[in-house]
Amino acid sequence: MKWEVTILMAVAASVISCSNNHDEINVPVTDQAIAFTATVPKARSEVTTTATINNFKVWAFANGEHYMGENGVDVEKIGDKWSSDPVIYWPVDDSLNFFSISPTIKTATQNNPENPNIPDFINTGKTDLLYAVNMNESRTSTNVRNNQLVVNFRHALSQVNLKCARKRDDIKVVIHGLSLDGIKSIGSFNYPKETTEANISSDETRGTWSDLKYTESIPVYNDNAPVTLNSAQPEAVPNNTGYIFALPQPLEEAVKTADGYTGSCVKLLCEIYDESSSSKIWPAKSDTNYDESTGAGYIVFPLRTAVTSSWDTGRRYIYTLKIDVPEDGSGKIDFDITVDDYQNYDDAPDIL
After folding, report:
1. What does the alpha-carbon distance between residue 40 and residue 105 come to, in Å, rounded to a whole number?
2. Cα 78 to the chain's mean position, in Å?
3. Under DSSP, is residue 205 helix (H, G, I), strand (E, B) or coil?
4. Rounded to an integer, what distance in angstroms lies between the CA atom of residue 172 and that of residue 166?
5. What is the C-alpha separation between 99 and 131, in angstroms, rounded?
6. Which of 43, 71, 74, 311 is the most buried (most CB within 10 A)?
């Protein structure tokens, strides 16, 4: 199954010699220039699609030197056409290494052709970050098909989805808040050193993350209006913050301390009622994790389990929390975890 977003860089059938002026903005647009077009397979609404992608940035190196300047080239969709500034031409003899990212990140520069990366990326959880690599490309490369250089974009982040379900039909669960705790939100993305082909054949073609830092508690739902869970069927947890994309990272074991919990975990703030009488049955004020401001209690769910000990690049993680009345006051929860492809690309359009 394919995991990659695909973007095409359409190039003219004929090329001219590239002079030292290939970085100039005022190069006239002709049939000899590289043009761009972008295609993204069908996906869920939160993920970048052909209809929503509108820009990317690309850097190129020739013989270990910048070919398009340290700041690369911004490619923007205007109407139904893609436009780059400056216009780019193929060199006559040299091959090029391309490194692309979408959306455009203004602070990103590629100063090291031997180890291209995006340093200190700040993840907000709302941006579907994409990357692509094309190594040793020229107009006659096998990746140039129908006069188009095929550039396969992949997902740089992990997608995290949370669902809740009441475990028994005789209870009603009122959700006041939900957060991901102990999560790193800043890291440096390292491009792979091989071309990102249409199918992932090895980990060598995956991007990696390093220098992870800034651990925080990330709210997923923090609206003042509580949400009632009435069904035993898993329901997507309300998400009013828009956080669904996380940095790929190792997950630390959740450990109970005198002040709460440390490590990677989900904190669910909720109340539990008897379905028939509407009487509140949890929490009492004396219970552990009681919250005076809402009258609810925290149930803590560890993100690190036997199923998954890390979030990996390009994977989607679906956590289903099955809620029942805690037996010991500390929070009791059963859970299912599903790990699948970030997107289903079976319905992707044929681009060749």
Report:
1. 19
2. 25
3. helix
4. 7
5. 8
6. 311
**Tokens 């998400």 label which residue?**
239
Length of the chain, in residues: 352
SS3 314: coil
In the chain the domains, ranked by start, together with CATH numbers, are 5-155 (2.60.40), 158-194+208-341 (2.60.40.2630)
Coil, strand, or helix at residue 110? Answer: coil
Separation CA 13–CA 35 (nearest Å): 11
Positive or negative, the Cα torsion across 120, 114, 202, 348? positive
Radius of gyration of the chain (CA): 24
State whether residue 203 is helix, strand or coil: helix
Q: Is the dihedral of CA 8, 52, 87, 98 positive or negative?
A: negative
For 34-43, b/e burial (b = at least 16 CB within 10 A) is bbbebbbbeb
Cα–Cα distance, 58 to 62 (Å, whole number): 14
Q: Which residue has the higher pLDDT, 72 or 174?
A: 174
Q: Give dist(CA 103, CA 182) in Å, integer.
A: 27
Give the predicted TM-score (pTM) of the model.
0.81
d(CA 335, CA 120): 33
Coil, helix or strand at residue 204: helix
